[in-house]
């Protein structure tokens, strides 16, 4: 009995995120929960991202006890662009495999939790003697769409090169157009080779998916009751929530001063605008956004990461001039403490690119969405907000492909005036909070995961 108890406390798990911000954050939150239940976590970033995470932490104690921050090289040279993931993703297995395998063996790792976008590591981990779980950074609906890609090809909806063949919506909850299938929308029609590579990569890595004993999902049974039954070994334990202080896993330092600015705004008035970690706007689009926010007549908090806008010389959007012009009405920050912003009573709505983390965070904190998706699973997440939960509205692009200032102004006014949206947002917030509360479905699944990892 004593031996069994000792073994249980020695559960050591490796967590392997894909080297992008929207992957490191939720896996860090999962790790924090596991560590809270006595599981020792080896969190393996690429060396480049490891340095960002450690460097941007406001407090050195932000990494909870029980989490060990480790790193391996990503295979790039010092002059290479580590943010251009599309370019080096194919070389990751060759760069990381040897070190990872050696770590699993030498650190006596019993389980590896592999980010779905790192599925090539499922086989490696199994070969090195570990049991494996997959972690989905996207919705259960998108995960099941992924597993169904061969069927969609068979049914003639698309071909093996990622060309859309079928018409009409794909029959799933939420409904999407074939062109919005994440691996298709990730590459434009002008990049057929990229599309082909995306689809082929999914088809190939899907084959090792059965190695995962469970698929851990940042969602809940109540939020995705149609999609989750399609994934027999899914373990939904979300929405994953960051603690209100000491967040970890961020690549940029959070601008905490915006919280004091929010404190000074009347309740339910602020438009929060953030496009996640990779979205960017060209100068024309940025100008329309800036004008639209001013036209809305509401205070706004806008996240503008370094390199968020493109263009050079005269074509460049003059951010400093804009900041000066809107001083007092709007605040621009480089990186926001997003979960704290969304839970702030001053925030009225979220203009979002609809990444899955942002989507879950908005639901959890009860904030309605204005959806501005670009690619990948963002269209599917938009469809959840607008067509299934009824908690959001789409921002439509005009004939130039631009979201115009008038569109922003009118949709903000509509969203904030609609009583139906308000009440559905409140309902889904309760649902999401209920899932993660003690006794809730997600909380129960977290306990199941902990006990599985201790076996
Ligand atoms: N985020 C943040 N501050 C910001 C913008 C984003 O903390 O100013 C966080 C956000 O809370 C979320 C993550 O970055 O957890 C972005 O993930 P998401 O899936 O929404 O988008 P991605 O970056 O993967 O496109």
User: How many structural domains?
Assistant: 2
Helix content: 40-55%
Label the CATH architecture of the largest domain. 3-Layer(aba) Sandwich
* Intertermini distance: 14 Å
Give the distinct bound molecules.
uridine-5'-diphosphate
CATH superfamily of the largest domain: Glycogen Phosphorylase B
Question: What topology, given as strand order, has the largest sheet?
Answer: 3-2-1-4-5-6-7
Average pLDDT taken over every residue: 93
Backbone CA Rg: 22 Å
CATH class of the largest domain equals Alpha Beta
User: What structural class results from the helix and strand content?
Assistant: alpha/beta
Our estimate of the beta-strand percent is 5-15%
GO molecular function, one term: UDP-glucosyltransferase activity
Protein name: Glycosyltransferase N-terminal domain-containing protein
InterPro entries: Glyco_transf_N, UDP_glucos_trans
Family: Belongs to the UDP-glycosyltransferase family.
């Amino acid at each position: 009995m004593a031996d069994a108890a000792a073994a249980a406390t020695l559960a050591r798990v490796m967590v392997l995120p894909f080297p992008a911000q929207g992957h490191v954050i939720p896996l860090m939150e999962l790790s924090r929960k596991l560590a809270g239940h006595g599981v020792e976590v080896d969190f393996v970033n690429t060396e480049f991202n490891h340095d960002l995470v450690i460097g941007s932490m406001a407090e050195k104690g932000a990494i909870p006890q029980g989490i060990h921050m480790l790193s391996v090289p990503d295979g790039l040279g010092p002059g290479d662009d580590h943010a251009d993931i599309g370019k080096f993703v194919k070389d990751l297995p060759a760069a990381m495999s040897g070190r990872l395998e050696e770590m699993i063996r030498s650190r006596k790792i019993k389980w590896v939790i592999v980010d779905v976008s790192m599925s090539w590591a499922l086989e490696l981990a199994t070969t090195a003697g570990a049991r494996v779980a997959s972690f989905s950074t996207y919705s259960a609906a998108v995960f099941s769409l992924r597993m169904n890609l061969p069927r969609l090809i068979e049914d003639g909806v698309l071909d093996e090169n990622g060309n859309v063949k079928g018409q009409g919506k794909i029959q799933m909850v939420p409904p999407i157009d074939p062109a919005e299938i994440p691996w298709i929308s990730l590459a434009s029609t002008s990049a057929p080779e990229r599309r082909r590579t995306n689809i082929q990569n999914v088809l190939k890595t899907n084959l090792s998916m059965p190695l995962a004993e469970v698929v851990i999902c940042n969602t809940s049974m109540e939020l995705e009751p149609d999609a989750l039954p399609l994934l027999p070994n899914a373990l939904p334990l979300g929405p994953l929530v960051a603690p209100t202080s000491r967040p970890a896993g961020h690549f940029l330092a959070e601008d905490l001063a915006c919280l004091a600015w929010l404190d000074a705004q009347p309740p339910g008035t602020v438009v929060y605008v953030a496009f996640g970690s990779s979205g960017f706007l060209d100068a024309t689009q940025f100008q329309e956004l800036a004008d639209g926010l001013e036209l809305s007549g509401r205070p706004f908090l806008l996240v503008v990461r370094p390199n968020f806008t493109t263009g050079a010389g005269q074509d460049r959007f003059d951010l400093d001039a804009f900041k000066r012009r809107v001083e007092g009405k709007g605040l621009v920050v480089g990186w926001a403490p997003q979960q704290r912003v969304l839970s702030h009573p001053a925030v009225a709505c979220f203009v979002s690119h609809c990444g899955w983390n942002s989507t879950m965070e908005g639901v959890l904190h009860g904030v309605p969405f204005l959806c501005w998706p670009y690619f990948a699973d963002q269209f599917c997440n938009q469809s959840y907000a607008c067509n299934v939960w009824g908690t959001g509205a789409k921002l439509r692009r005009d004939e130039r492909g631009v979201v115009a200032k008038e569109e922003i102004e009118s949709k903000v006014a509509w969203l904030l005036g609609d009583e139906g949206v308000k009440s559905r947002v409140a309902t889904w917030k309760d649902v999401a909070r209920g899932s993660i509360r003690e006794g809730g479905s997600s909380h129960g699944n977290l306990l199941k995961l902990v006990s599985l990892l201790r076996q």
